[in-house]
Amino acid sequence: MAQPPASQSDPVSRRRFGTLAFGVLGAALPAAVPSVTASAASTGPQVTTIAELRARSRPAPSVEGFAQVTVQGYWASNDGGGGTFRWYPDSTAPDDGGMVIARNSDEGVAGRWLRQPTSPEISVRWFGAVGDGRDDTSAIVRALSAAARSPEKVIYFPPSARAYAIIQPIIITSHGISVRGGEGAVIEQRTWGPPVFDIYNADDVTISDLSLVMEGGDRSEIPTTTVGVNGPTYNAGVSSSGNRTIVRNVSVRGFLSGVKLTTYDRATRTYSGTRVGNIIEDVQVSEVAFGLLTTAQDDLVVTGLTGSYELFPYYPAPPHLIYMSGSSTTTAMTLSTNITIRDCEATNGRGGSAFQFGGIRGGRVTNCTADDCDSLLSTGDCRDMTFTRISSINDANLYAGSLAVPDDASSNIIFQDLTMEMSETNGNRLILLGGVDCRIENADLRVRRSTFPCGPDIAVVGERSSLRNIRISGIDSAGGSTGILYYEGSGHSLDAVEMAGMGIGIQVAANVRDSDLSYNPNLITVNPLLGAPARRVGINEPSAGVDPGIHVKRSERRVPYAFSGGIRVEAGSVSHALISASGPVQILDTRDQTAGMDLTFEITNITTRSLPIVWDRSFRFASPLLTVSPGATVSISFTRTADHIWQER
Fold first, then answer.
1. Closest by Cα among 385, 502, 517, 497 to 442
2. Each residue of 6-53: pLDDT tens digit?
3. Which of 25, 212, 497, 628 is the one with CA 20 to 30 A from 296?
4. CB–CB of 73/81 below 8 Å?
5. Exposed, middle or buried by CB within 10 Å (0-12, 13-18, 19+), for 361?
6. What is the pLDDT of residues 546-601, one digit of tens each?
7. What is the distance between the alpha carbons of residues 280 and 321, in angstroms, rounded to a whole number?
8. How far is CA 584 from CA 20, 195, 405, 578, 579, in A?
9. d(C-alpha 233, C-alpha 194), whole Å
10. H or E element: which one contains 155?
11. 3-state SS, residue 411
C-alpha cells in the first residue's frame, strides 16, 4: 500500500514519527501533539474491541489532539489485539485494520485512531489474528504490510492455544523483514501446495522461532498451486529466492521441503544467477522429502539441521535431508560455492541418502550424521570439498554406495574421520570412491556380510585416489566381503590399513596402473570359515609384457608351510615362505602378484637325506637351486617381472 504524503504543516520528524507509530502509512500528525513514548500509560476511556473503537464518536475539537482510548482486545477482551490508540484529526492514512483505524463514517475524511505501540514488533494479534485454528491469513498479510513500513520491520506471532491457520502463502517482497514467533507458536498451511512463507526476491529476511505445519494434502498428487517448472517443489515451509535469508530455530512438518533456497524467477519462469549469504540454523524437519533443497548458493551456512525424510509419491526423485542441486553442464541450475554445513543429523531417512551434493565448488561439511538411514552421502560434479567427522549408524546401505563419489567430474573431495556401521547384512558396496584426487583419511567401517563373495566395502574407480588409516571390521561371522577393491584408474595410493573378518582384504584389478600400495598383511585377517577362497590380498596381473606400474610395499610377513605336496604362495600377502621339507619339494606358480614384487623362499630339510626341489617354469635362476642337503636351510629371493617371471635376485 503506497505511503501518502504528510501534511506540509506537520513538523514531526520522520524519526519521531517512527517512535510514535512505526511509520504506519506516513500518517500526518498535528504539530500540537506532544511526543508519546513507548511506555505511555493506558489512560482515558476504554472500549472492548476494535469494532467499538470504529463506532466511537469523533472526539470534540477542544480535546481531539490529545484524545486517547484503550482497547481491551481485537475481537474480545485480552485476546492480544488491544492497545492504546490516539486520535490524529488531520490524518487521512488508509485504515489497515491494526495500526490505523478509521471511524465507520470517516473513511473518506480526515481523522484516524493510531495505535501507540509498546513494542517495536508488529503483532499479528493487532490485526485480528487469533491462533485458534480458524483462518488468519488476511490478518497476517495486513500485519506483514504494516511491518514492512515500520523502522524495525518485525512481525511477531504471540503464543496461542492452537495454530495460526492460513490458506495461501505469506509472500514477503520487502527487504529486511523479520518474522518471529513466541514460545510454541505454530503456523498451519491448509492448502496443499504453497509454502507458509514465500520470500520472493527479498533480501535480509529472517524467519525464527516458529513451527510450520502442512495440514492435510494428498502426497500422491501434484499440488494444483504450481508455478512453472518450479511448481512441484514450491511446497515448502519456507521458500526463498532472496539473499541473506536467515531461517533459525524453526520446525517444519509435512511439506515436500522444509526450506527451499532457489534462484527461480516466477516472472520469467527461469532459474537465474546465484543467491548469497543464506543461513539455516537449528531447523528440525519431519514428514518431508527434503529438509533443505537448494540451487546456486554462494556462502551458504547450514548449522544444526536435523530430522527425518521420506519419499513423496508425487515427486519420485530420491529424498534427502540436505539436497544441494547443481551442475556445470546444466544451465537451469548453476553451481554453488563456498558452502559450510555442520552439526546436521538425519534420522530414519527412507528412499535416498541423507546428504546429496551437486555442483559445488569449495565447501566444508563437518560433524554430520545419518542414523538409521538408507544411505549416507553422495556427491556429483563437486570440487574442493572437505568432509570431517562424518558418520552413519545403522546404515541400511541399500544403493550403489552408501557414501559415493560416482562421477569423473568430481575432484579433490576429502573425507576425514569417517565412521560407518551397517545395520543389516547385504552385498552392496559401502563406499564408491570415484572422481579425481579424492581421498579418505582415518575411516572406521563396520560391515555385516552373510555371504561370500560380496561387497566391496570400498570400491576405487577414479583417478589418483588415496586411502590412509583405514579400518574395516566384518561383524557377521557367517560371511566376508572384499575390503578394498581397486577396480580401475591410476595413481592410487594406500597406506596403513587394518581389516578383520574379510573374504578378501585388498583386491587389485588387472587394469589398475601406476599406483603405490603400502600395507601390512599381518593386520589383515580373513574369516577362517570361508576356507581356501578367502585371502588377504588378491592382485590380478595384466597380460604378459605389460608393466602396470603398481608398487607394492608390504610389511614382512613370514608364513610357515608344512610340506604336503605342491606349494602355491599368495605373494600379495606373503613376503617370506618358510618351508619345512620332509620330502621332495614342489614350488608351484604363485598367485596375487604384480611386477616389481619381491618374494623369498626359505627351505629347511628336516630329514637325514638330500631332497630335490622342483620349480615351476615361472622361476628363473642365475644358478639353479635343485636340492637341499640334510638338515640344511637354503634361502633364495626373486623379483616379479612384467613378463610374469620370478627372476632370482
1. 497
2. 333 332 233 323 333 333 333 333 333 333 333 344 457 999 999 999
3. 212
4. yes
5. middle
6. 999 999 999 999 999 977 678 999 999 999 999 999 999 999 999 999 999 999 99
7. 13
8. 108, 83, 52, 15, 11
9. 9
10. strand 154-157
11. strand
Range scoring the smallest mean pLDDT among 59-73, 129-143, 415-429, 491-505: 59-73
Cis previous bond, 453, omega within 30: yes
DSSP bridge partners of 370: 346, 392
Q: Count of CB atoms within 10 A of residue 575's CB?
A: 19
Task: Reduce the DSSP state of residue 127 to 3 states and report it.
Answer: helix
d(CA 281, CA 270): 28
| AA identity, residue 241 | S
| Distance from C-alpha of 626 to C-alpha of 289, rounded to nearest angstrom | 71
How far is Cα 42 from Cα 55, in angstroms, rounded to an integer? 20
Give pLDDT tens digits for 382-396.
Answer: 999 999 999 999 998
What's this model's pTM, rounded to 2 decimal places? 0.89
- Residues 523-554 have pLDDT tens digits of 999 998 888 789 999 999 999 999 999 999 99
More confident residue, 102 or 397: 102
Contacts 24+ apart (CB under 8 A), 37-40: 38/117, 38/118, 38/119, 38/120, 39/118, 40/84, 40/116, 40/118
In this structure, are residues 42 and 23 in contact, taking their beta carbons and an 8 Å threshold?
Answer: no
Q: Side chain identity at 231, as an amino acid letter?
A: G
Rounded to whole angstroms, the Cα distance separating 294 from 303 reads 15
Helix H, strand E, coil C: the string for 599-648 is EEEEEEECCCCCEEEEECCCEECCCCCCEECCCCEEEEEEEECCCCCEEE
Which H or E element spans position 149? helix 137-149
Contact, 281 vs 248, CB < 8 A? yes
What's the per-residue H, E or C state across 34-58? Answer: CCCCCCCCCCCCEECCHHHHHHCCC
Task: Find residue 513's DSSP bridge partners.
Answer: 490
Q: State the pLDDT at residue 192.
A: 87
